[in-house]
Amino acid sequence: MVVNPGKGDRLWRGIVIAAPYVWLLLFFLVPFGIVLKISFADPLVAQPPFSAFFDWSAETGGKVLATLDNYRFLLEDKLYLVSYLKSIQIALISTLLCLLLGFPMAYAIALTPYPWRNLLLLLVILPFWTSFLLRVYAWMVMLGKQGLINQMLMSVGLTEEPLQMLYTDGAVYLGIVYTYVPFMILPLYATLERLDLNLHDAAADLGARPLQVFRDITLPMAMPGIIAGCLLVFIPALGEYVIPALLGGLDSLMIGRTLYDEFFVNRDWPLASAVAVVLLLILILPIMLFQRLQQEAEA
Amino acid sequence: MTNAKGPDSQSLADASSATPWKDPAQKPFIELKSLSKRFGQFTAVDNIDLKIYRGELFTILGGSGCGKSTLLRMLAGFENPSEGRILIDGVDITNSPPYERPVNMMFQSYAVFPHMTVEQNIAYGLKKEKLPQAEIKTRVQEMLQLVQLSQLARRKPNQLSGGQSQRVALARALIKRPKVLLLDEPLAALDKKLREQTQFELMNLQDQLGITFVVVTHDQEEAMTLATRIAVMDAGQFVQIGTPSEVYEFPCNRFIADFFGKINTFDATVVASEGDWMTAKLEDSATEIRTRHSQALAPGSRCTIGVRPEKLLISTEAPTAPGLTVTRGVVEDLAYYGNRSLYRVRTQHGRVIQVSAQNYQRSAELLLEWDDEVFLSWDSSCSVVLTG
């Protein structure tokens, strides 16, 4: 065994540690810096379609041309506030639904003996083997007026007229929960699997009824998994574009769609960038707050 | 169920509170009646009857898979018996859920709640009883003092040592003032020094609180030192129930004799039998052994005679006292332990006998050396007849 790493070893260690940071720098921080810069510009009908950040010309001697107009506009036009709120609402409710659905599933998997457990885990991951877009289209086929579900309901006689299911908020919830529930199940399974079942027996032995055991022991012990799963569902659900665009109605206006429209329909890059920056802030602030709270709790 | 009786067990007259199991008038505190537990085809506990008396420190001893843990889990209420009844203090609790039983358990893994402080762990059981806050607080303080954890009340379990976690688990169970405390391998996870200390602490606590303890263990030493009585379990049934000295000195069969410490065994044929005594001839030599037996064997029947290594005397000169069985041999191997030495002696008949001798004298040289010619002797009352 090498006790003192040689120069070559140290170099490799440095590279291994640096690699993810370089990745983050190149593919997250740099693009985000560009988007942030554009969000302070004015839209122009030009190539590129926004004004410069710096004025390099000799007569002004270098001047920052930043403007907060875009952010001001976000506050003035109700459209943006409405789509942010709608996105937060849909993401929150979807996350909750994923939790309610995913927790019992993850728990059941964690309690299933091998080799059945591997099979169940495989089934959770299986949908990822087909294209995400294809699966959303499949839902369109099933939910449509002439879709599978309506045909079944009518043939059984539960309804005379086909129900309007596609292009509703309900379809958006369904699509998001269907797509993201594995992201809830997997981290929950990882924590529940390590749960010492003796703790449940111990709590019951000390006088706790089954529901109290769940509240006092299972739930707090599963909290890291619950938080991880909720973040994994909430973050992508908040910026979700495809599902509301395909399954949602005109009033399921989520911020992802607004963002798309600003970029590609209105070609207002600076405003779209501002929308994106605010979206990121909405995501980052609660996470940072949560981490702060957790650190305080541990100290 | 076999209940080995020591030679002095006829003295029922002095059957007092110290030995309630000898008094038929005593009411048992825990009673198992024809208790069985089957998992599919496998019978873990097989038609067991048992009486445990108030204030006993009763130990169930056996190897892994003998059914002792299943028995304990049935007492705690985590498993439902397939057949039979469980009574505690006269109340049938066979079908009560764990949270309604007057029984608490200390788990082998301790199962201390990792997300609660020491204090919260200990208070948990009382909170479930919905006692007033003030009472919970005083009782937790008392319990913390009893197990000497007052300084660590605010700690989380991951900041505790193994011994401290064990005391939390113990305090958490005791604070409920259970009628019976169940302990699953209470000392298994502790290192040797701590085991001895904890062993005495447990015995003192039990004495102080008067709670009936039922201990499950695979460690015969742990069972011997802790217990008022030991039940040795094998394949779902009790092989022998008795005090530690009864099962050690009067093992009912070879399994028990082997299980507790070392024993030299000799195959023999019964020659004559009168009263409590019988004479048997060893199979491979002419040596006749006179010994006491617990159940009469007909002349001509075969048996095993056992002698514990420490019951044998080893000497360089022929012993002359009457009533001794004597044989000659050569020291083949010896191990020096400081306080005692263990000798392996090959007899003239080619048999190897183990002898354990206290080192009374202080000497830098060994009293006996390899290849020394020695005499082995034992008193007739020291050998035991083993059947089965």
Percent range for helical residues of chain B? 10-25%
Q: Classify the beta-strand content of chain B into a percent band.
A: 25-35%
CATH class of the largest domain in chain B: Alpha Beta
Tally of helical segments of chain A = 12
Q: Quickly count the helices of chain B.
A: 8
Walk across the major sheet of chain A and give the strand order: 1-2
Residue fraction in strands of chain A? under 5%
First-last Cα distance of chain B:
14 Å
Which CATH class of chain A applies here?
A: Mainly Alpha
Count the domains of chain B.
Answer: 2
The pLDDT mean of chain B sits at 86
Strand order of the largest sheet of chain B: 6-7-8-3-9-10
Report on this model:
The complex is a heterodimer of chains A (299) and B (388). Chain A is mostly helical. Chain A has a single domain, classed as MetI-like fold (Orthogonal Bundle), CATH 1.10.3720.10. In chain A, 72% of the residues lie in helices and 1% in strands. A two-stranded antiparallel sheet of chain A has the order 1-2. Chain B has 2 domains: 19-258, P-loop containing nucleotide triphosphate hydrolases (Rossmann fold, 3-Layer(aba) Sandwich); 262-386, OB fold (Dihydrolipoamide Acetyltransferase, E2P), CATH 2.40.50.140. Chain B has helices at 68-76, 118-128, 133-146, 162-174, 192-209, 220-226, 244-249, 254-259; strands at residues 30-39, 42-52, 57-61, 83-88, 91-92, 103-106, 180-184, 212-217, 229-234, 237-242, 264-274, 277-282, 288-292, 302-307, 313-315, 324-336, 340-347, 352-358, 373-379, 384-386. In chain B, the strands form 4 sheets. In chain B, strands 6-7-8-3-9-10 form a 6-stranded mixed β-sheet, with helices on both faces. In chain B, helix 2 (118-128) crosses helix 3 (133-146) and helix 2 (118-128) runs parallel beside helix 4 (162-174). The longest helix of chain B is centred in the middle third of the chain and has 18 residues, at 192-209. Chain B is globular.
